[in-house]
Design the sequence.
């Protein structure tokens, strides 16, 4: 038996005025997703417990079958696994975004212009992080380069008793109320302010401004956590797995659970990613003997964070055309039994431009299934079936049931 998860990050949404009262899933042309829902089992699942924040970390752990209430220790430590940073039990980790802040003289008066610094390239970001590693005065802290705008800060002997805000939650807002608070938070704020002074006139940022791009003029620290402890995916479920994703978070989860990570060229985490390459990597993993493949696509989430209505619809269509279609064609021609799961991790509503905890639509289809829902893949149709999975981490058990 082969198993595949098609995970469109942030794909679910609310009815949107800019889309004539429809959601992107209702508007998108997605015949392959609709077929899975029509011929398969359609319902809603709650992937984020009410006591937790609706991050992709919590939600993807849940989809993978790891109850976040038991396994979650923070987002950044999972990314540390992907980067290859060896953590001590005393380390506290943080995500350090390269962001674009506005030009006010006082740091606390600035506005979060762009949480991703214009989707800065990994090459440019690595050079900026290298400069910060040399010039920042931060005893007890270490800074590591990641991918694009996503980087890692490690505090030896630090504390998680701080209040920090994800930058994508405060797009276009003044940062005044969202600066670090709590125990020793002044150390984190000092690093952020120092980074702004160093980066503002960096040649890379000067060149980006000349080209009409947003400068990466500050670090923004958030996503605190401690060394994770995740059970082996093989040990937990008895199948070998491969992760396909552009982002360190998902690669880190894979590393922590002993899954293989497929490296796909030219993946970006946005709508310009290599969709075809992800499908090819999935087919290659399955044909080479892997039992389970998790195909994570970040693009709908990024479009949601930027309020890009048409692009979010297009991202869903590209996932359907270039990933779901080819992988399903391979599975159906392979002669093997298979079962697939289609879902987002959480909604990223265009109107809010951030994550919410609302349940998400899922579809599970098994080869030659006879008792399908008959409904297309939308949030409304999933709700109308009446099938509700209260703990999203139980979906993996349904998918992998013998």
Sequence:
């Amino acid at each position: 038996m082969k198993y595949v998860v098609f995970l469109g990050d942030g794909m679910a949404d609310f009815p949107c005025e800019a889309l004539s009262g429809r959601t992107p899933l209702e508007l998108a042309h997605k015949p392959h997703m609709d077929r899975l829902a029509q011929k398969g089992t359609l319902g809603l699942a709650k992937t984020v417990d009410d006591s937790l924040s609706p991050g992709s970390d919590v939600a993807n752990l849940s989809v993978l079958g790891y109850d976040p209430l038991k396994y979650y220790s923070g987002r950044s430590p999972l990314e540390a696994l992907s980067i290859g940073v060896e953590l001590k039990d005393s380390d506290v980790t943080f995500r350090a975004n390269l962001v674009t802040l506005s030009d006010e003289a006082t740091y606390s008066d600035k506005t979060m212009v762009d949480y991703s610094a214009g989707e800065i390239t990994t090459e440019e970001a690595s050079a900026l992080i290298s400069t910060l590693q040399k010039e920042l005065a931060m005893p007890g802290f270490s800074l590591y380069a990641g991918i694009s705008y996503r980087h890692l800060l490690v505090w030896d002997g630090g504390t998680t008793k701080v209040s920090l805000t994800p930058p994508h939650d405060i797009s276009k807002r003044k940062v005044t109320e969202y600066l670090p608070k709590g125990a020793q938070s002044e150390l984190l704020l000092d690093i952020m302010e120092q980074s702004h002074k160093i980066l503002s006139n960096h040649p890379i940022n000067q060149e980006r401004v000349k080209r009409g791009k947003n400068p990466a003029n500050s670090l923004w620290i958030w996503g605190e956590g401690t060394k994770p402890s995740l059970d082996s995916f093989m040990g937990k479920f008895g199948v070998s797995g491969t992760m396909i994703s552009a982002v360190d978070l998902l690669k880190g989860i894979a590393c922590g659970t002993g899954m293989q990570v497929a490296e796909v060229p030219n993946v970006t985490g946005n709508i310009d990613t290599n969709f075809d390459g992800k499908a090819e990597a999935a087919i290659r993993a399955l044909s080479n003997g892997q039992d389970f493949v998790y195909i994570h696509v970040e693009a709908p989430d990024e479009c949601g964070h930027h309020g890009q209505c048409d692009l979010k619809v297009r991202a869903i269509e590209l996932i359907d055309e270039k990933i779901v279609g080819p992988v399903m064609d391979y599975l159906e021609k392979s002669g093997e039994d298979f079962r697939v799961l289609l879902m987002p991790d959480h909604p990223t509503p265009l109107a809010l431009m951030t994550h919410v905890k609302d349940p998400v639509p899922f579809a599970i289809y098994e080869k030659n299934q006879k008792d399908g829902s008959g409904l297309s893949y939308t949030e409304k149709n999933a709700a109308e079936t009446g099938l509700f999975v209260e703990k999203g981490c139980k979906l993996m058990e349904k998918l992998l049931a013998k």
User: Anything to note?
Assistant: The chain has a mean pLDDT of 96. The CA atoms of residues 28 and 58 lie 27 Å apart.
